[in-house]
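User: Sequence in, structure out. Go.
Assistant: Echoing your sequence, followed by the structure tokens.
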Amino acid sequence: MSSTYIETGGQVRVYDSAVKAHDRLPLGTYRVRFSSKEGFSLVRTADLAVGAEKVYGQREAKVDKIFRTYARLDRNLGVMLSGNKGQGKSMFLRMVAERAIAQGLPVVLVTEDADGIVDFLDTLDECLVIFDEFEKVFASGRGHLAEPNRQNQFLTLFDGMSSVRRIYCVTVNDVQDVSHYIVNRPGRFHYHMRFDYPGPDEVREYLADQAPHAAASEVENAALFSRRVNLTYDHLRAIAFEMNHPEAKFSEIVEDLNIKAIEPSTYRVEAKYLDGTVLADESVLNLHERSDVQRTIELRGTQRALFFSFAPRDVVFEDDGSISIPVHTIDAMDEDEELPDELPARITLTLVGQTSYSFDR
């Protein structure tokens, strides 16, 4: 059996005949691996693929935009995908990777940090480089742990000063934990695509596809529920599994599933007066608390202000999916800390952070 001799840095290594030499990085998907003895290397792994799973929303158009823009650029293209877990970032990442392979671009996955990783990545040929959960793998240097900043080491790489073009795609769960030199810097990341919670229309479409045997009235109940609580696609997957028979009751399903709203959500609070005046602001609330603890809201306008407290247990979830706070249950003051001359006719809450607030079919 013949041997292959590889010389690098004055050192000759002997390999068997299975060793192959390539002028360019072969098409495929690789994971970056670091060893203290051997340094950095690429390990082949299975290609990321969407498969037969249906993609919801305008995801395909976004993928088209990324590769259309990359074709027009003479430098790197950075793409940041942000949003809470379960919002479809991983699915979108698979779509981007699948398109890259189809266009002849190798895919490189970066899942660990080690000194020298920037220099290693900059030796690669043209490819798609993916950093999944970027802020978790590479610390920002902020927070109580006082870890060193490991994100800023990539700034020159993302700047696109290299002679080789690449697409850098990062997913982020918490934008607040990403370096200020990366966020809001289109020179480094041309696109920042945000993944919001599915709204009622998306919930209806998803359940119509994934739970075809569910009663139409129960699908509508799920859509109404999505106006009260932010549901992720992970939630919808579990709901669809349970709802896929005619006798399924959404109220019973949601009571047992592990999707309780234990974390506060952001709501737009609007106080509407008889003369047409509207005071509005956003507030973080947990409407599913049923204790007597009061929540205080401050609304200001040019002509009047309203400060009021209410108990989440008094919130009314209407049959049409809207949310209101009965005015007679609030404790209200004006900016002089006196009882206001006039109370609003209606106080409503609208869940913030969905792809659509519209509830029209």
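User: And one key feature?
Assistant: The first helix runs from residue 59 to 72.
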